[in-house]
Design brief:
Blueprint lengths: L24 H30 L7 H12 L2 H7 L10 H20 L4 H17 L47
C-alpha cells in the first residue's frame, strides 16, 4: 500500500509557486549604504582636520614624515611599497583636501546606491592613503580601521557596472565574470 504524503501547508503543493534561492538583497542594500555613511563621516572629518594635523603648517607635517621614511628606507619607492599612499606623489595641502573631498563624494555615491567594486576599491585606497600618512593616528579618528571590513561588500556588488539599486540583483562572481 502506497502512502501519500499530505502537505503540511496549503501552499506546499501549489505548482505555480516557485521557490527561489535567497538573494539577501535587503542585507546588501543596508550594508552598502551604511558603509557609504561611515566613509562619508570619515572623509568629512578629514576635510575638517587634515590640514591642521598633517598639512604643511600642521602639528605633524606630512612632508617631514615622508622625508624621514624615505631616508630611513633608502628611497621613495621603498617608502611607497612599505606605506602605500597617493601622497607620495603629491603631498601639498591642496592634494590633501582634494583626496578628502574625492573620498567624500565617492562615499555619497555609495550611499545613493551607485556602488561597484571599482568605487569601493577607490574609497579603500583613498582612506588607506590617509591612514598611512598619519604617523600618530590623529587625522583619521585614532586609526578607525575601515581597511578590513571594506572587503566584505566586494562580494555583494557588481564589479564594473554602477546602477541605482543594483544590489537587488545578485552580482556575478568575479571569477566567472565575462563582461556581460
Amino acid at each position: 500500500m502506497e502512502e501519500t504524503r499530505q502537505p503540511e501547508n496549503e501552499w506546499e503543493d501549489d505548482p505555480g509557486l516557485e521557490t527561489q534561492k535567497p538573494t539577501y538583497w535587503l542585507t546588501r542594500f543596508v550594508i552598502l549604504r551604511l558603509l557609504g555613511v561611515i566613509y562619508a563621516i570619515a572623509f568629512l572629518v578629514a576635510i575638517n582636520q587634515i590640514i591642521p594635523l598633517i598639512g604643511s603648517d600642521g602639528l605633524l607635517p606630512l612632508e617631514s614624515y615622508l622625508t624621514r621614511i624615505s631616508a630611513a628606507l633608502g628611497s621613495n619607492t621603498t617608502g611607497f611599497l612599505r606605506l602605500p599612499s597617493v601622497f607620495w606623489f603629491n603631498h601639498s595641502d591642496t592634494a590633501l583636501l582634494l583626496v578628502a573631498w574625492l573620498g567624500f563624494l565617492f562615499s555619497l555615491l555609495v550611499v545613493a546606491g551607485y556602488a561597484n567594486a571599482l568605487i569601493l576599491a577607490l574609497l579603500w585606497i583613498l582612506y588607506m592613503s590617509f591612514v598611512h600618512s598619519d604617523r600618530n593616528g590623529m587625522a583619521m579618528g585614532g586609526r578607525f580601521n575601515l581597511q578590513k571590513p571594506v572587503f566584505l561588500p566586494f562580494s555583494s556588488v557588481r564589479y564594473w557596472i554602477s546602477a541605482l539599486f543594483q544590489s537587488m540583483n545578485r552580482p556575478k562572481p568575479l571569477l566567472c565574470y565575462s563582461g556581460g
